[in-house]
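[agent] plan:
  1. take the single chain provided in the ticket
  2. run structure prediction with default settings
  3. attach structure tokens to the ticket
  4. add a short note for the reviewer (M.T.)
[agent] executing step 1
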Amino acid sequence: MSSPARPETARSTFLEGVRDISVLIPGVIPFGMVAGIAALQAGLSPLQAFCGSLCIFAGASQLVAYELIGNAAPLALVVIGALTVNLRFLLYSTSLAPHMQGLSQLRRALNAYIMTDQAYAFGIRRYTEFPERPYAESYYLGAALPLLATWLLSTLTGILLGSGVPAEWGLEFAIPLCFIAILVPAVKDRPGLLAALTGGSVAILAGGLPWKLSLIIGALCGILAGVLARGRRNG
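[agent] step 2 finished; step 3 output follows
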């Protein structure tokens, strides 16, 4: 993401975001297909499965919710599990909010809806590393909207294919690969590393708990470890 030689426009900046995010699109496709298949396996109808991606648009929390639904977990636990996995978006929103103060409430709501880990990473870099360049929101939209379209189309593909996807495709393996690609660049300091190691370790050790509670407990422990480590460092 280097400064262009020619004057920028909203359109050119949007297309720059599209080009930059395009390298991550192939990894989203199998992830979305798995989400569509998982929703059906949890007992949801095709319409409910697609609406899950359209309304929630959060792959990790969708998979956790579908897993809990499939295991007949109480509704409250399904909601808590999905929200826990997505707590990181509170931090994302907090860091992006100062850069979007001048936008209307509707535009801020749209930007919040289409936020993903990948779009946030590209967007915050544009806002913070190149504050002199205009149309930062256009760049963010260019990075975020293709991910939304890809997610919906790939989820729909998974729904239509159902259980007919050959096992040798190994779509499930794309999910941990996608999260590893997000996690590794995000671990930039010791508190972040401690949070990742704590959360992962606790989730593995608690793997035998019912209703996939290990994921929720691991996430909460990771967050707590990161917050305590950061507080100690800043104290």
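[agent] step 4 note for reviewer: The chain is about 70% helix and 0% strand.
[agent] ticket updated
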